[in-house]
Amino acid sequence: MNSNSPVQVAMIGTGGMARHHIRGMLKQPDTTRIRVVCEPSEAAYNAAAELFREAGLEPPPNEPDFEKLLVDYGDELDTAFIVTPHNMHYPQAVACLETGLDVLVEKPMVMNAEEAVRLIEARDRTGRLVVVAFNGSMSPNIRTAVRMLRAGELGEILTIEALHWQNWRELTVGSWRQIPEISGGGYLFDSGAHMLNTVVDLAGEEFVEIRAWTDNRDTPVDILGVVIGKLKSGKLVSMHGCGDTTGGGSEVRVFGTKGMLRTGVYGERLEVAFDRETGLQPVDVPPSLGTWQQFLAVRSGTLANPCPPEVGLRMAKLWDAIRQSAAQNGGPITLPDTLAVD
Prior knowledge:
This protein is of the alpha/beta class. The chain is 34% helix and 24% strand. It has eleven helices and 14 strands. Strand 12 (270-273) and strand 13 (281-282) form a beta hairpin. The mean pLDDT is 96.
């Protein structure tokens, strides 16, 4: 494709979250053209098509057969934005990479660590780009917090605590999000995935041991969860998720020998404290770019990848250990340094 032409995009999925992204993408006609969509639901496609009409544009064609879309349109495309149920992320991402497309994939990246390893192998084999659309990792607050932590501005990290709450159980009744085979988990792997990912991103290292307890609250999937863990360096981590309460919110605190910082799992804020007298103070950060804008900047080489699949692998290994420990009523799980994949 001509580097001065708009990026040609396949939108894989046009559900509610995809339509949120489409609204932003349609505001960037000079850089982006949604060439085709893949949506088996007629109602979801019609809802997305209306967004194009509101923007004064002809809706793109819909090819509901994913494999056929790649065959018929692959040579006309540059990228794919995958916003589908969780169990479809891995096979669709790999197929897009092997077609020669760069990939932006919604969270969580994949269903488990084995898929994460195979996705990284596919990225390396094809030489294409993979970015995971996690709000936290793409937030300038989290990117600034990571830089501060790596630079030692808060001293040695001692502990990390995270909290996320939402009325997730009520919001997802009757949806695929409560079908384990499709979702890969419940609240902790859906909305709570933001907490797991942001903690992994801030920590910047592997977990070596996990204990976890979950409660399904009479549903097929986890609704409540408490996780405690130890990082490779010995740092201690606690995470608490409640998916059956009022409203929603989050909190992440990192405690160091020189100070502490406070943020949210989506990167909603960034505050630091270095002494008791001044307490928490806001930190100046660069302006926030949208998810798609950041993806384009990474493709052009003007921005480092804020959430590469290596971060997704760390989170997937953490999730695998959480599930194993919860199945053993909080039994300790030692995480492998590496994964052997056949």
